[in-house]
Sequence to fold (569 residues):
Amino acid sequence: MDKRIIECVPNFSEGRNPAVIKEITDAIESVDGVTLLDVDPGAATNRTVVTFVGEPDAVLEAAFRSVRKAAEVIDMRGHHGAHPRMGATDVLPLVPVSGITLEECAELARKLGKRIADELEVPVYCYEAAAFRPERKNLAVCRAGEYEGLPERLGDPDKGPDFGNRHFDEKAARTGATAVGARDFLIAVNFNLNTTSTRRANAIAFDVREKGRPVREGGKITGKPLKDENGKPVMQPGTLKGTKAIGWYIDEYGIAQVSMNITDRSLTPLHKAFDEVSRAALARGIRVTGTEIVGLIPKSTLLDAGRHYLRLQQRSLGIPEEEIIRMAVVSMGLDQLKPFKPEEKVIEYMLEAAGTPRKRLVDLTCGKFAETTASESPAPGGGSVSAYMGALAAALGTMVANLSAHKAGWDDRWEEFSDIAVRGQELMRRLLALVDEDTDAFNRIMDALGMPKATDEEKAARAQALEDATLFACEVPLTTMERAAECFLVLLDVAEKGNPASASDAGVGALAARAAVRGAGLNVRINAAGLKDRAKAAELVARAEEIEKKAEECEKAVLDIVNNNISGK
Fold:
């Protein structure tokens, strides 16, 4: 079962005083088991977006401590900024990351909201998935009137908060109110415009946001807003589902922006929002000059965007992840206002960096990998080398596919070769992972051999651990064989259809794939010999022999095509 991980993204009404912001983030980091991923202050908005992750209990405690500290160090009576707000801790959403549902996060949010109101006397509205009332799913409803509207709302049985509803007193005047909720991953993004006009930025925002704009009599901006039979404004929906947007002017940059929250990435991915805002802006004589990501962003969002723009250019998608992300950055101008560093903005990269540092074989240079293999240590050994040869086989097939996708005169075939390259990239990634996994398998056997065996119980536990580790040490090279054998499908495709000038590369790939299969097969057999379960050992060896036989046939098929191409037959 996956570890239960949630993300918390509180927004604090302070973006100009680094010392105050640090007091709040120190409170978050005082909780063990929480990783602070991002602190994004904004001077113009006078607001800081903080992102941290961890298991539920740790995150709830860190969130509570951050609200407590914000209530101590932020006085809302003197707060001003460009962003809507109603409290020192303005919003505090919980976001499911892994091993936990949105519904479970909603229950945790309500529990947290009650604790904040009971122990800190901060009024709390519950919003999004944690809302008690349907209309309060919308944060704008909870925050209606902002901080200045709280004296009228607090104490009112209908307008007041869900927890801590009381009359507006001195403490509430200082802290304001907080919205606590649960939501899916939200992308906060600002689109930069080549104008200083807030009115025009708002017009573009109304064109695209899901809510749209009020319909007016005669379709004129000066016309009276039309209302339905219930007295509510008639709205003309915008073009982007799952989005909220407004226009504003940012003095810090000297430009207007369309500020957008994408609440449903499945309906409106980031690249679609960028393209549509660009279209709506151009229709009004304005250009989108770049994009500003607020907080963190999922890696898949940038990969989807990069692939989208590669497709528009009829370029191969089978390129390294870093290059795809770079395409997204350049295409949407993510680095217009300041450098965009994926390692500081992509949540998966941040989580990876925050984890326990691990020295991986695949991170070594080619020379260092060879030197490490040549050392006195028994690992890395033949299994890791076999997996690496398989990765090189996949890399060569991918290279030929990418070269073929860009071959002059073959423009109408770019997608055919792009599909092959994508398959090759995925095989290469999996085989590179097996380079280190094979060494991990060896280490598991060593750990089992080092277990105590003084008592009968310890002997039994050691024997079982050794059997399990040995089985794993068979399964890893068997997986290497399977993945390396799949490389032949890529190599056959590029040998038959690819750029003839790269025929020898496909041939070398076939030789490397066959070596990977045979080398990993040796590891399967030597490790299977140590299994107590002889039936399982025989099954694994038989499977390895079957893969080797097919690999031999595939190697011959690829080399026959390659040799014919080289000889000009």
Remarks:
- The two ends are 56 Å apart (CA to CA).
- The domain at 187-353 is CATH 3.30.70.670 (Alpha-Beta Plaits).
- Residues 329 and 339 are 10 Å apart (CA to CA).
